[in-house]
Amino acid sequence: MGDINLVIVAHYIVIACALLLASCSQQDEQQQVTDSILERAQSYFEQGQYKAALIETKNVLAAREYSPEAVLLTAKIYLLLGNVTAVAELLVPLIEENNDLSIEYGLVLADSYIKRNKYRSALNVVNGLAASSDQKLNSQRDLILGLAYAGLGRARESEK
């Protein structure tokens, strides 16, 4: 009787392991598919095919709950297409949920505020960003600061 119970338990363990392996395999395959879609979206973006890139990033976001790369690319596309309200709708909840304002998210959000003449909001976002080791991001940060100060009528500060 004891040997039968041991055999049954062994069978359950084998079944559980098989299910776990199958689950891991499916997750890996899904990761590869979404990575491929994201690469395609980036390629479309670089070619200036923003609507095609937007479709692909939305596919990634539909397949995954959260993909920082897809969110950032989607926000950049919205900004370039002039849908500046959608940028804030996409980024603000994520920033608030994660209590983390990366410089990339912050610059896109601040730029969307500049385009909506919300200079104080842009200034608040940029002032909350840490300096980056990337000179291009720091230059973009300085440009947005200048535009925000100029928009607020503080031209002397924008010349810094």
Topology summary:
Blueprint: H1 2-46, H2 50-63, H3 68-81, H4 84-98, H5 103-115, H6 119-127, H7 135-151, H8 155-158
Helix pairs in contact: 1-2, 1-3, 2-3, 3-4, 3-5, 4-5, 5-6, 5-7, 6-7
Assembly category: single chain
Gyration radius from CA atoms, angstroms: 23 Å
- End-to-end span in angstroms? 85 Å
Estimate the strand proportion.
under 5%
Largest sheet: none
Order of helix and strand elements from N to C terminus: HHHHHHHH
Specify the number of helices.
Answer: 8
Into which percent range does the helicity of residues fall? over 70%
pLDDT averaged over residues: 81
Structural class: mainly alpha
Shape: elongated
Low-pLDDT runs:
21-25
Give the number of DSSP strands: 0
Account of the 3D structure:
With 160 residues, this protein is mainly alpha-helical. It is built from 8 helices and no strands. The protein has helices at 2-46, 50-63, 68-81, 84-98, 103-115, 119-127, 135-151, 155-158. The longest helix is centred in the first third of the chain and has 45 residues, at 2-46. The model is unreliable at 21-25 (pLDDT under 50).
